[in-house]
Design brief:
Bound molecules: glutathione
Structural class: alpha+beta
Distance between the termini: 36 Å
Strand content: 5-15%
Length: about 220
Amino acid sequence: MIVVHHLNNSRSQRVLWLLEELELQYEVRRYERDAQTALAPPPLKQVHPLGKSPVISDGALTLAESGAIIDYLARKYGHERLVPAVDTPEHLRYTYWLHYAEGSAMPPLLLKLVFDRLERAPAPFFVRPIVRMIAGRAKSSFIEPQLQLHLDYMEAALASNEWFVGTQFTAADIQMSFPLEAARARAGLDQSRPRLSAFLDRIQARPAYQRALARGGAYQLMAS
Ligand SMILES: N[C@@H](CCC(=O)N[C@@H](CS)C(=O)NCC(=O)O)C(=O)O
């Protein structure tokens, strides 16, 4: 039995969604974020040393890192659904978007979260203006321009097709859902980018996506 170590409001929602798309049986073990820090609780470190989610176990295998998990599950159980045939241009594009989601799209979104919090963090009154100035400069000079660059790039990627790889929905679209949902929650992704907005509406209307929400519980990404 596949077990998903699932943290509320997190990347592991994608794994539940993939499992629902593949109509597989699986067990969900739930972990709750700390209300103050939003970090995962210590028991997750007993599953994997980093203590982050998602992690899955499948028999003797324990696997972390959402891209690796999604690729493993889609290849092993997908029966060629959701993963383009190897040695095709589609497969290369599939690999590209699978890596891009965590490797390129997520870092500026994480920086935004960290620097937004830094701006609000309690600090002695004489330090507070300096902290705010540094956080504000980091955001305006680097983080915001990077976010706009990536959002424009992703919007352009959907110019000729509904899905990131091409005409077919693939597991890479599942992997791409998280940075886009995070961008909608915290980086101003709205109807001014109609293709990305339509992509989010399209995926969220899928029955498997809805079933995964019912299995996973609360899924509201942090705005800041
Ligand atoms: N690149 C990793 C990131 C894993 C990660 O940072 N997960 C977050 C949830 S969205 C987490 O566990 N945060 C809680 C913590 O760091 O304690 C992946 O894609 O799986």
